[in-house]
Design brief:
The complex is a heterodimer. Chain A is mostly helical. Helices cover about 65% and strands about 0% of the residues of chain A. Classes of the chains: A mainly alpha, B mainly alpha.
Chain lengths: ~300, ~325
């Protein structure tokens, strides 16, 4: 298969760059942090300054260091849960799509049940029951509950691929089921797998932060939700300490945006029609506007009222 | 009708799954929560309540798991969810009964509004592709990447304060007694403005994007070209031909997405101390109030299933193919 490499659009590039920055911080954030994120100091509730870029907390902890150190936990849970959920989704989605008959239906019903049951309350409850839940446990719980959307999408696509000529031909040639699934079907699912992976990472990040924010997860490690938890608990809003919760929130939003932008790019590969159409309005010689539209040939005659642009 | 029967079967299955999860949750808890409650309350609990809690938590070790499960189902059928530890003699059902209207009012209204606004904007964004409307996409993406609760925190900082007309927490002023009089309803509405705006702003983007993508896909179909060729007005083709067909996945996705939406809105209730089910759940978790936790989870699942059912009815109204016999 020949792979045509197109330079990704501006949106995707911005997304990739942002993601690269956060990945870099996940690895080197602790080394770069100017202070120990848990260490107290005498600079209590300082607003941002050259010494403390994002200000300090009620016991003088440096918020910039907390954000830097916290990136690792956020990215770890996001990607670990994303990988786990995607593996489950691929196995369940492709099997239920490829198997015909009641077995496929049954597996697909199970994934629909998982979609409909409200995930966050369930995750909050389960995490709360597990004693000393660290990042690993939280990532496992999120991964085991977050696979259902991906499985649903993959099943739909597999169902449609199964009917295509090249799969029918492979089957008629007597190829083994493993080979058909691995060589004929899976490569054609790459884009959907990638996009459901990114969607799950986003879900996992949001969930982990929400768990930390309500104080359910253990307080062993710093993450952005933990920063917000302390800000909320210490009434940062009421005392006007905006620097305490604005940076963490912006980081979450930037990470979420970067993943969403990458997903736009993948969606546009799957369905090229979704690409921004560029400029669709042209101006004719006599200054009228005509809109380009799929299926229509614009007739840009200078004559006044007949047939222009529709 | 076959479609309808299939959906009802699916709801029953999901309900059963939720009940079963609920049955197993307390059995994972280390220690014996009922004994610690009894020790705490020193004989205030009557024997009926203890028996009901025993069934809920599976503390009767002489029974097999299966017979525990049956007595649990029997107890649920009587509408007995146990008593809440935190609000001590009050049964879970009455705690939920007072919290549920708030959540249904807030989440129900805002989710439907967000769906309508997002879908409407999506119709335009998809139809007018290549115009300035495309510029909306990055903005809404950014807005929907912000966690609901964080937007709520910002809203509290920016719009509430000593001299502000908008309250920062609660569902109504502490002095008022809940009731159906104008003063109370006005007060409750005023308290719900900020939470509602928060939920709408952060959830509109998802609907917009889904609808926009479907509109773009649909507008290249042959029947759209034919409709244009017939000389129908642009507006008519957009609403009656493209939007009606593009709406189908959004409507069927509406019910499915609710499970996710509910989680986000719970955190909004938490930020605004809004007296709904979400706040009850988070309080119950910090207070280890297991019967209430179970009750909330069950109630929320049932509510989401009911909303799914309504979405299905809407889907059947929109898509004649589902009403076909056979």
């Amino acid at each position: 298969m020949k792979f045509h490499f197109r330079l990704p659009g501006v949106k995707v590039m911005v997304g990739l760059v942002l993601l690269a920055v956060f990945t870099f911080l996940a690895f080197f954030g602790s080394a770069l942090a100017p202070y120990d994120p848990s260490a107290r100091s005498n600079d209590i509730l300082q607003s941002p300054s050259a010494k403390h870029w994002f200000g300090t907390t009620h016991i003088g902890q440096d918020i910039f260091s907390q954000i830097l150190v916290g990136t690792r936990s956020v990215m770890f849970v996001g990607f670990f849960a994303g990988i786990l959920a995607t593996v489950i989704a691929v196995v369940i989605g492709v099997t239920s799509g490829y198997l015909s008959g009641w077995a496929g239906e049954a597996v697909s019903t199970v994934s629909n049940v998982f979609i409909v049951i409200p995930a966050l309350p369930l995750i909050v409850i389960v995490t709360n029951v597990i004693p000393n839940s660290g990042d690993w446990a939280i990532a496992m719980v999120i991964g085991c509950t977050g696979w259902a959307w991906g499985a649903r999408l993959l099943r739909a696509q597999t169902l449609s691929l199964r009917q295509r000529d090249f799969v029918q031909a492979a089957r008629a040639n007597g190829e083994s089921t493993w080979r058909i699934v691995g060589v004929e079907i899976l490569p054609n699912l790459t884009a959907i797998i990638a996009s459901s992976f990114i969607g799950t990472v986003m879900f996992a990040v949001m969930t982990e932060i929400a768990l930390a924010f309500v104080g359910v997860s253990g307080i062993s490690q710093w993450n952005w939700g933990e920063v917000l938890f302390w800000a909320q608990g210490q009434q940062a809003l009421a005392i006007g300490a905006w620097w305490w919760f604005v940076p963490a929130g912006l980081c979450i939003a930037l990470l979420g945006t970067s993943l969403a932008l990458i997903n736009f790019g993948i969606d546009e590969i799957v369905n090229p029609r979704l690409r921004g159409a560029g400029r669709t309005t042209v101006r004719t010689a006599d200054g009228r506007k005509a809109r380009m539209r799929f299926g229509f040939t614009p007739v840009l005659t200078p004559s006044a009222d007949e047939g222009g642009g529709r | 009708m076959k479609y309808f029967a299939g959906r009802v079967g699916f709801y029953l299955l999901t309900l059963w799954a939720a009940i079963t999860i609920n049955f197993f949750i307390p059995r994972l808890i280390p220690g014996n929560p009922v004994d610690s409650l009894i020790a705490q309350r020193r004989g205030e609990i009557d024997s009926n309540a203890i028996k009901s809690l025993d069934i809920l938590f599976g503390l009767d070790k002489h029974q097999s798991l299966l017979s525990q499960y049956w007595s649990y189902l029997g107890q649920l059928a009587h509408g007995d969810l146990g008593i809440s530890f935190q609000n001590f003699p009050e049964p879970v059902t009455s705690v939920l009964g007072s919290a549920l209207p708030w959540t249904l009012g807030l989440i129900g209204t805002t989710t439907i509004l967000a769906f309508l606004i997002g879908t409407l904007l999506g119709v335009f964004a998809g139809w007018k592709r290549g115009t300035w409307v495309d510029g909306l996409l990055p903005v809404t993406t950014f807005l929907s990447s912000i966690p609901y609760f964080w937007l709520g925190l910002i809203a509290v900082t920016l719009f509430t304060g000593v001299d502000s007309w908008l309250p920062s927490s609660g569902g109504y002023d502490p002095g008022l007694v809940p009731g159906w009089d104008l003063g109370f309803i006005g007060n409750a509405l005023r308290h719900s403005i900020l939470p509602a705006a928060t939920i709408i702003i952060s959830s509109v983007g998802g609907w917009l994007l889904a609808m926009r993508n479907m509109m773009v896909t649909v507008s290249a179909e042959d029947y759209i070209t034919v409709a244009h060729a017939k000389g129908l007005s642009d507006r008519r083709v957009m609403t009656k031909y493209a939007a009606r067909n593009a709406l189908l996945p959004s409507v069927s996705g509406f019910g499915m997405a609710l499970g996710l939406v509910v989680g986000g809105t719970f955190l909004v209730e938490y930020v605004f101390s809004y007296p709904g089910v979400g706040l009850q759940l988070l309080n119950a978790i910090s207070g280890h109030d297991y019967p209430l936790i179970q009750g909330v989870f069950l109630t929320v699942t049932v509510a989401v299933l009911a909303a799914n059912f309504l979405a299905d009815l809407a889907y059947m109204a929109l898509d004649p193919r589902t009403r076909k016999e056979g």
